[in-house]
Amino acid sequence: MPENAPNILHIFTDQQRFDTISALGNQLIKTPNLDRLVREGTAFQRAYSPSPECVPARASMITGWYPTRTECYCNEQPMPPVDTPTLMSLLSDAGYQTMGIGKCHFSPNSYALRGFQQRVSQEETISDRSADNYSKWLVDNGWGWVIEPHGVRSDMYYIPQVSVLPEHAHPVGWIGDQVLNFLETKTDSEKPWYCYAGFIHPHPPFAPPIPWHKEYRAPEMPLPEIPEDCEDLLSFINHFQNRYKYRDRGLDLNLVRSIRAYYYACITFIDHQVGRILDSLEQSGQLDNTLIVFSADHGEYLGDFGSFGKRGMHDVSARIPLLVRWPAKSNAGTICSRVASLVDLAPTFLDVAGISYDSDDFDGISLRLIADGSIRRDSVYSQYGRAENGLYMLVGERWKYVYSAPDQKEYLFDLKSDALEHTNLVGQLEFEVTLGQMREKCISWLHEQGEVAAVADDDWRLYPKQKVSTNPDDGLLCQDPPWWVKEKDLL
């Protein structure tokens, strides 16, 4: 590692859509501090998640590998073994001080270090409050009666809520404080540091604290995008998660607008923490020697296509915000339209830190090389599930190709003329050649990766079609806190 290697601040949210930054075109949302990162850095406007679900997306991010390599395809599967090289272990080995703050969602052990030298944890669903730093802090500071500090889940998942916690005790405010505490200890540090700040919001339930819940009002929020042929655009996973999230018995558009208002409020409260962190870096003289990356694991439908949640391959679910403020504010105000992915973060951190690496060690490419045009790739890949549950996507600057195994169905979108993905072009004669090229490219790539559960010879491996039960109560989610089931009589 060379002298004067930059610090690295990695800010990561959960379930934040790509279109939730004011400076990048959303005229309603208030994100002054993310707007500052846009002005002072590079905005990668075509960034995608390697998997539109929490655990596999994070497994890909920390390793720089696609799910075909991590073999983590959904939340229920473990990440690679704990001794697998990660961006944190590689930075630690090179001499960086590494700190993880907040949600990591490591599986199967949520509290593993996986290369961090230190962690301050805040996870969503916990079985032992004493094992989680945030939950223990709540108990120690008189908030032990709060059963669900992140909001009430299950049947209340998509009911807007006001947090019972004040700003400083709220999960988002607490993460902001922990980052500030860390930065205060590094003002005179001789070694560069890497700090990961993982926010659980705006993941549902949407529960901002007072007075942030009043930032937006339902009547001013846009209605969801619901195309005329919406059913043709959905896959099994959309119907499946609409069911278990209590959202498949009719669409209340006023409720959807309230959901969106509270979702935006959660993001604006996170933006406030970003501002506090930037101010601290600036006041301590560390800002211009720090690489700052802001991103998310995946998006959220918010009623678009009549759907809620993540896991789908529409842009609102699979596309993510990705902002990079380079050291010394180089390339400020740059907008990059080339496709990017979370697998690009690991090689980016090593590249900017001046740490040598073999490009074959990663599926990703340094964002610096993508931004300056040194390397140009024509597509990135995403996958959710596998075999009979597999959902696969190949997307470039114009075309998006998706295959859903549970539906035995293909989707093709022209993102240049149909940015909102209202029209599936499969079946239209003039696009048969493009469809065949995208299918062949996706299948060939999977063959190269050894993904035999997805493909057979030169075509998709067929599995039985799946449908959600016609019983509207079959499959509803129940997520009471595991620790509460054991301790409720003690409260």
UniProtKB/TrEMBL annotation:
What InterPro entries does the annotation carry? Alkaline_phosphatase_core_sf (IPR017850), Sulfatase_N (IPR000917)
Q: Where is the Sulfatase N-terminal domain?
A: 6-355
Keyword Oxidoreductase recorded:
no
> Which controlled-vocabulary keywords does the entry list?
Hydrolase, Metal-binding
* One Pfam family hit: Sulfatase
Q: Which GO terms describe its molecular function?
A: metal ion binding; sulfuric ester hydrolase activity
Q: Which GO terms describe its cellular component?
A: cytoplasm
Q: What is this protein called?
A: Sulfatase-like hydrolase/transferase
Name the lineage: Bacteria, Pseudomonadati, Verrucomicrobiota, Opitutia, Puniceicoccales
